[in-house]
Amino acid sequence: MKQGVLDISWGSILKVAMTVVFFYLLYQISEIMVLFVFALIISILFSPGIDFLKKFGLPRTIAVLLIYFLIFGLLSFFIYLAVPAFSMEMREFSRLIPEYFDKVSPVLEGIGMQAFESVEGFLDSLYESTEMIAANVFNVLAIIFGGVFTTLFVLTMAIFLSLEEDGIEKVIRLIFPEKEKNQALVVWRRAKRQVTNWFFVRILACIFVGITSYIAFYLFNVEYAFLFALMAGLFNFIPYIGPFVAGAIFFVVILLDSTWKAIFALIAFVIIQTIESSALSPILSSKSA
Fold first, then answer.
1. Tell me, what DSSP letter sits at residue 115?
2. What is the predicted pLDDT for the residue at 6?
3. Distances, alpha carbon 91 to alpha carbons 65, 113, 169, in Å
4. Which of 174, 241, 251, 252 sits in a 20 to 30 Å window from 99, CA-based?
5. Model-level pTM greater than 0.90?
């Protein structure tokens, strides 16, 4: 009876070794690849604005720098305007924490949840948690400064990607075979267009939800209207879960002040979310498709 002989050539061993080395190197540079993906997404999102400015005869370099400056300048200006109102409402809310705490504790105990005996106990626990974080202060500082350098790296990489016109398409033409090149370009352009459209639809929807929520909260004389409206707009960027979390938070807080205010504010927020999800977003998506 003949026994099978396992014949492994040196070529097969070399291929296996090269595969292992390739995945090892890919693992080592995974963090850099993630940062590159973030930079790529930013450059994709800014590309429509750059193309728009180029229609007026601006050189691509000037268009890229102008778009980045305008977008981050407007973002900084919005933060400059929003921070004072946000800080003021946060300070007012922090003064009322003991009052809210006294109202919430009996409710939590009534449903079987263990609550702190007093706000002092809550603050002591918070202080202990802060001490635990401070024990690793060097790690915290490393994370903070690492975040700053990471942000600068991503923005720099995004600017360079934006400066190179059709850079990704050039790479696709270089690495893909001739038969698959056109299909890869079609897939890339479609993905680029869909990502850009989805992002801007979400941004416009968040602005709509934030503004209309502020108007509703202001009309119902809800305290911390700006804080809740800002929360509603930001959380709206996350579909389904974000609006639910935001609505639950401000409903509970407003409920401690007035039951009717909480109910009316929640109804208004549900109506706003319904308009956004069933009318505004579909219309914007169809227009940008």
1. -
2. 46
3. 38, 28, 51
4. 241
5. no
Longest dimension (CA), the chain: 93
98: which residues sit within 8 A by CB, 6+ positions away?
A: 119
What is the pLDDT, as a whole number, of residue 145? Answer: 46
Q: Please, are residues 265 and 216 in contact by the beta-carbon 8 Å criterion?
A: yes
For tokens 């202060």, what's the residue? 137
Residues sharing a CB contact under 8 Å with residue 28, sequence separation 6 or more, in sequence order = none
Find tokens 């007035």 and name the residue: 258
Tally of CB atoms within 10 A around 192: 18
C-alpha span between 187 and 197 (Å, rounded): 15
- Mean pLDDT of each 10-residue bin along the chain, 289 residues long: 52 69 68 79 85 85 89 79 69 63 56 49 51 48 57 82 78 74 81 84 90 91 85 86 87 81 90 91 78
Retrieve residue 138's tokens.
Answer: 């060097």
Q: Three-class SS of residue 267?
A: helix
Distance of CA 239 to the CA centre of its chain: 12
